[in-house]
Amino acid sequence: VRDIALQIAGGMTCDKIVVAIGDLLHDIGKTYEADTETLNRRHEEFNLPVSEEFLNSLTLPAEQFQKIKEVVAHKSDSTEMKIIEDADALALYADKRLYALFFQCAKRNNLNDAIQRKLDKFSKLNFERSKEIRRDWYRQMRRDWGLSTTN
CA angle, corner 40, sides to 39 and 42, nearest 5? Predict the structure, then answer.
């Protein structure tokens, strides 16, 4: 996610430190001790408590520190948050091994809803740069699932 987020952020006016730290911690709440369903649906709620000790060890200007906390907690509509959301939506396809595992599992278990949710993320990307990055991945995924590649 970090590499893709920084690729999207390149040339944009944003705080790249917020992007770099925020994207590394965007899913840290999944390490919280809770049942799998809770973590899958509400992990963002746990991001800040799980990362708080680390965040408090950083020496950053107060404004930047606050912005990072908002991004980590998913309580931001900033450019930095939108970059991280786009990068997160694209990350599965950038990791060919992870994508292959997802593809095999989804196909084997007939997880059409999961597949559709992944495809739907592409239409919700925030930036033209994100759309440029995803174009080939999106077409490949549609081919993999036997769908038209005209989009």
Answer: 60
Amino acid 80 reads E
pLDDT tens profile 90-116: 887 777 788 788 878 887 887 777 777
Structure tokens at 111: 């997880």
What's the confidence (pLDDT) of residue 30?
84
Give the amino acid at 124: K
SS3 13: coil
CB atoms within 10 A of CB 8: 26
Neighbouring C-beta atoms of residue 148, cutoff 10 Å: 7
Contact 4, 66 (CB under 8 A): no
The number of residues in the chain equals 151
Which pTM was predicted?
A: 0.81
* Contact by Cβ (8 Å): 4, 94: yes
Q: Which of 47, 41, 11 is nearest to 27 (CA)?
A: 47
Asked if residues 66 and 58 have their Cβ atoms less than 8 Å apart, the reply is no
pLDDT at residue number 149: 58
